[in-house]
Amino acid sequence: MVTIYDGKPGLSRRELLKRGGVGMLLVISGSAVISPEYAWGLETSALKPETMATLIQMARDIYPHDQLADKYYAIAVKTHDVQAGKEPSHKQMIEAGVADLDQRAGAGGYRGLGWEDQRVALLKQVETTPFFQAIRSGLVVDLYNQKEIWPIFGYEGESYSKGGYIHRGFDDIEWL
Would you say residue 36 lies in a domain? Predict the structure, then answer.
């Protein structure tokens, strides 16, 4: 997202380098959301790419894990794009919900807010809406069911196929 700093339009190369890893830099191109820094992209089919970029930021704000790359959040919210392609009512709810967040945020929209606590305060204002509940409840499954992130959290997966937990360290409580 390009914003205005020091009265100058856009983000200069110097400013971009100075900011380094602060926040996420997502490029919206055509019908895709791209992260040039981490070399991943997400194509959208039903929702606007700007909407998807906001959902990615929203997902990170709802379930913040510094050790997770944005691509895992992008994979998690992609299900809303798929569902929006099948159900016009879902598409309308998501687009309207993001528009409402952007309006509440003011100039620059939700993604333009520089501080996480500002975004979280906005999310608290809408946490009872069907929009927020759809995003939050979908993330519980779509984020944490990604096998690629399980090792990050120390989860080894289901145990049945490996003979259960009892003989695999379940009872080695070293912290007690």
Answer: no
Contact between 31 and 49 (Cβ < 8 Å): yes
Whether the Cβ atoms of residue 78 and residue 49 lie closer than 8 Å to each other:
no
Query: Alpha-carbon distance 165 to 154, whole Å?
Result: 14
Task: Kindly give, in sequence order, each residue whose CB lies less than 8 Å from that of residue 41, ignoring residues fewer than 6 positions away.
Answer: 32, 33, 34, 35
Binned at pLDDT 50, 70 and 90, residue 105 comes out as very high
- Domain of residue 81: give its range: 46-170
- Six token digits for residue 31: 């019908």
pLDDT per residue over 4-49, tens digit each? 434 445 555 554 444 444 445 777 766 778 777 766 677 888 999 9
* Residue 37 domain flag: no
CA 92 → CA 11, 102, 104, distances in Å? 32, 15, 18
Token match 């069907």: residue?
130
Whether 69 is covered by a domain: the verdict is yes
